Amino acid sequence: MPRNPQLVLSQARAPLTRITQVMDEQGEWREQALACERPLTLYLNKREIVTLMTLGEDPEALVLGYLRNQGLIERLEDLLAIQVDWDVEAAAVVTTHTPDDLEETLSKRTVTTGCGQGTVFGNQMERLRGLTLAPWHLKQSQVYQLLEALNQHNETYRNAGAVHGCAICTATGEVLSFCEDIGRHNAVDTLAGRLWLNGIESEDKVFYTTGRLTSEMVIKAAQMGISVLLSRSGATEMGLQLANMLGMLMLARAKGRHFLVYSDQDRLTLDARPDPMPRSSKRRD
Questions:
Q1: In terms of one coarse class, where is the protein primarily found (predicted)?
Q2: How far is the C-alpha of 14 from the C-alpha of 180, rounded, in Å?
Q3: Amino acid 282: pLDDT
Q4: Are 269 and 149 within one domain?
């Protein structure tokens, strides 16, 4: 339940997939699920902010997490309402006041690369200065526990593909919250909104994504207070630079029993080393 009793939230979850007819390589027709993709234009106190392309799994949390990660809402107590209406493809957010520097913040826009382009407003690096993350340690066996637990999720991906999944997990393998969306940045914003609404402490949690650990993803995880990153994909150079700067344990290429540790390697205890692979079959990552 939201920690802010005055907050009015809609419950506008949209259908995540629809069925279409496709032809396979044998010329046979079959049904195939498609991941839905729909625009959602975000308004803050009647000021248009951005249009997000989203799956629509948890739009209220997505909107809140986006605004928080962009520095446009700093206190949950200031929030009065989040109303999502799919008929007009809009989300109206009402707060007790509008940030004084809103126009200046919106004028500094960076469009990020990757699937489902994201938009970053303002000077993100300034907001990271002075940020301190908890440098707790993780065990290799816990990484394997997490990966096994996460295999039970990705429902939309299994049915239709074309989406990314992100999760907030404990070190003991519990998946506290999982979200799928068209873009990984939408999924992590949704998680940020859920954590904030429910008052979940995140300093001892693990952030997981099926997508790349880009600078944007590292920044969003850091803004949630998370210092351990786990991805089944790879990392970018700037993502790694930021992880090193912020003191984050970054693990990527995590599939099965394999993973690579990109930063803060001394925070991982290798207590479950698998048998070495034959030289001829070793991966080239």
A1: cytoplasm
A2: 13
A3: 56
A4: yes
Residue in the structure block whose two tokens are 């340690």: 137
Examine residue 186 and state whether it is found in any structural domain, yes or no: yes
The pTM (predicted TM-score) of the whole model is 0.85
Candidate list 36, 115, 169, 179, residue with the active-site label: 115
Residues of the chain with pLDDT under 70: 1-3, 105, 107-125, 278-285
In the residue annotation, 115 being an active-site residue is answered as yes
Tokens found for residue 31: 């049904």
Buried b (16+ CB within 10 A) or exposed e, 84-99: bebeeebbbbbbeeeb
Type of residue at 194:
R
Rounded to the nearest 10 degrees, what angle do helices 59-69 and 184-198 cross at?
A: 90
- Token pair, residue 67, equals 């605004």
Residue 234, judged by CB atoms within 10 A of its CB (0-12, 13-18, 19+), counts as middle
**How many angstroms separate the most distant Cα atoms in the chain?**
63
Q: Which residues contact 15 (CB under 8 A, 6 or more apart)?
A: 36, 56
Give the span between the Cα atoms of 32 and 21, in whole angstroms: 6
27 in a structural domain: yes
Residues 86 and 172 in one domain: no
102 and 226 belong to one structural domain: no
What is the distance between the alpha carbons of residues 69 and 12, in angstroms, rounded to a whole number?
A: 22
The CATH number given to whatever domain includes residue 151 is 3.40.140.10
pLDDT of residue 203: 93
- Residue-level pLDDT at 97: 85
Q: Which amino acid is at 177?
A: S
Structural domain including 112 reads 8-123
Q: Cα separation of 116 and 184, whole Å? A: 8
Q: In the numeric block, which tokens belong to residue 26?
A: 């044998």
Does residue 285 belong to any structural domain of this protein?
no
- End-to-end CA separation in angstroms for the chain: 43
**114/218 same-domain check:** no
